[in-house]
Amino acid sequence: MNAKTADKIATGVFVTVAAFIVLLLAGLLGYILFRGVGHISWHFLTSAPETIRKGGGIGPQLFNSVFLLVLTMLITIPIGLGAGIYMSEYAPANRVTNAVRLIVEVLSSVPSIIVGLFGLLVIVNLFGFGFSLFSGALALTVFNLPLMVRITEQGLKGVPREQKEASLALGLSKWKTITSVMLPIALPVILTGTILSAGRVFGEAAALLFTAGMSSPRLDFTNWNPFSPFSPLNPFRPAETLAVHIWKINSEGLAPDAGQIAAGASAVLVITVLLFNFGARWLGRYLYRKFTAIK
């Protein structure tokens, strides 16, 4: 077999495998959306499960998912940025640093159910936060922090060395160089990774079963006191997120239209995650053109 024939065969195999994966993904997404989009309505998105006929709204669960996402990113972004900047620009190249990078890589591949069990033992029981949104946010921070650190470090290392050296040569301090020269250039990569990690948070369920809980108090959306147990803004109340709600309603099957509720909620979850991904790509391209002056 000559080189051209081998190249054609290899190309055909790769194209076939890629097409199969794309068709499989498109079929899966199409099936979920086909089953669920017809059940989505404004009433479905804003009503509580017990206030709609046949028991089918996802309003509180959708709010809990968004609130949990905000809490998680408020904790993850500052820590992840700081750790990524340190690992990229300040950490010495030695065995300790290499060990930290290895630990970060290992943490990024830990199953989310293990993170949930860790959260149950340490955050919920040892620290005494109980089943709450805050416990879930801390557990998801452990789950998402390695990705945030790695994205920040890689984004900063992708900055051309000449620009960094030129800034230092002009007399700027190292910190000023990082904040004024390197971070703006690395910002598209960091923001894209941040939005993608936010999509992972929104769709997570396993870790939240053991930390945020599988039920929510009856929320009073007219009560905005964050210390009230029935306030939607209270971060220390138990909360059932949208992904957990899908699992729960399928496993219990108490609602007469559980299949329709799960299908609609799954479609909402898939659409939201897709929006996160497309938004990340669009924002990354926009910021790259803005900071590089490429039209």
UniProtKB/TrEMBL annotation:
Keywords: Cell membrane, Membrane, Transmembrane, Transmembrane helix, Transport. It is found in: Cell membrane. SUPFAM superfamilies: MetI-like (SSF161098). Its main location: membrane. Gene3D superfamilies: MetI-like (1.10.3720.10). The chain crosses the membrane at residues 12-34, 66-87, 99-123, 129-147, 181-202, 261-280. It is a multi-pass membrane protein. It comes from the Bacteria. PANTHER family: ABC TRANSPORTER PERMEASE PROTEIN YQGI-RELATED, PHOSPHATE TRANSPORT SYSTEM PERMEASE PROTEIN PSTA-RELATED. This is Phosphate transport system permease protein PstA. It comes from Cohnella soli. The lineage of its organism: Bacteria, Bacillati, Bacillota, Bacilli, Bacillales.
